[in-house]
Fold:
Amino acid sequence: MRPFTRRIDPELARFLASTCRAVAVVAAVFCVAVATLLIANAVQLTSLKVQDNPTLTALRERYRAAQEDDELATQIRALDLLARGAYFTRQWQVRTGASLLLAGALLLAACLRGAAAFAARLPRPKPLEGDPDRRDPRATRRVLAVLGSALLAAALGAAGWSAGLLRRDAAGAGAPRSAVQRSSARTAKGPELTTTEEYHANWPQFRGPGGNGVAATQNPPTDWDGASGRNILWKAEVPLPGFGSPVVWGERVFLSGADESKREIYCWDAASGSLLWRASVQPAPESQAQPPRVSRDTGFAASTMAVNGQAAFAVFATGDLAAVDFEGRLLWVRSLGQPRLNYGYASSLALYGDTVLLQLDQEEGGRLLAVEADTGRTRWETPRRVLASWASPVVVDTGKRTEVLLNGNPLLAAYDPAKGRELWQVTGRRGEIAPSAAYAEGRVFAADQLLSLIAVDVRTRAKRWEMYDDLPDVASPLAAGELVVAAASYGVVTCLEAATGTVLWRQEFETGFYASPVLAGGRLYLLDRSGVMRILAADRGPQLLGSPAIGEPADATPAFRAGKIFIRGNRHLFCIGASGG
Structure:
């Protein structure tokens, strides 16, 4: 600044110096005010916890003694929402206050420096010898700088301490956990949740227990008719639209539905088809007010839920992730931030132990996220340098270790599900990728409609083969032992040899496929977009075994459990089974 000040007129220098001093005074007053508020806030937080609410505590105790009191549960949820709102408000206050203080301090420093530089160009009378008012102005500035720095450090330290107290309060008291969760839900702990026989006997997530499209049931039905009702055990209307697949645990079937203003989770009795409950998911306090723009083929509830036997989890296009217990009580809800995608968010949830995994690939800020099932808190998250995609995580056991497989643009990658560390990657993928990966016998299969279907050896990371024709757009490939099956959105089903990529057969149908193929009872089940199930032999030669229909369009992958098939149509949920049950 000094070379500039040497060239200006003394009168202009006097004006600029005066202006800088005036602005510096205002900035100093502003900094002192903000610093005082931050320090006072830190002092207040030492004796006040975000969720230390005597009324809420009393209601929790009453709820423990009366588990079925729905009115009491509603009161707890309402108070808890206020508490969580206070939690996020205080977080915002601390972050905003610290930012304002830094901005004010920078402005103050710049103005003081400017005032000194401009004042140096003004003529100064020499002080008389022995003048008692003769002082070195630099000493005064040093004292003010030390005092200002001390105040700034104290205020920023108070802001950091306040943030730490809020995080500790959130972890200890449960914010943003709900009160209902802390008082009534069973805690889901341990990796055994996704390794038990019960988990594998159910249909707990997208494409079944392994996320791979292989059903445990050995006797699924092969013949039904929606028009006449033959072998349709029941049909139930779904209140709100969605494209997420059914998930099943025991005698309960779960779905999510949403529109621009509402998000809901539903639970039906698997035996009778009666709607047991519908839970409304209110947006988290930090959610954006405006809903995202979504396409008609995606909507607001395209992601398939997950269920672990203790709670059900759902994520919506708004970025709200929620958990409910098996009675429909809201356990927790949090915002992941509104995904930045062309058509809306559609990646489905996956389970690993006591965590819920989410693939959040978007235009920027992509990441793989692991959320604690019982609290909703982030256990770990791993940034991904990717573009938008709509695929879902797949958790597989390679024999050597467990890996999370993510198909995306521009890479197919594997991660450690316990810590989120990237294990390996294959680059070169491109385009709008929606199909999830598949795995069988040491090979990963990943489809990209604009490029190819590839097979990668998980031990060597080498590409074993690549196929370029009749690639799936939405449906994920199926790895069925020695076979790989892919269903295109324009109706071509391709069966390849898993080891070599050799095309064994192709079958063309009039209607294409969005639902992913499923292997059940030694047969291939492929649901086309008109609601017709193409049932083929899982063999090296093409053999169509049947084409039963539900009678309405369908895009969601069906769920299989205990000899029954659950299909979500555009308007109804169908339960299909053999006559008499």
Q: What stands out?
A: The radius of gyration is 31 Å.
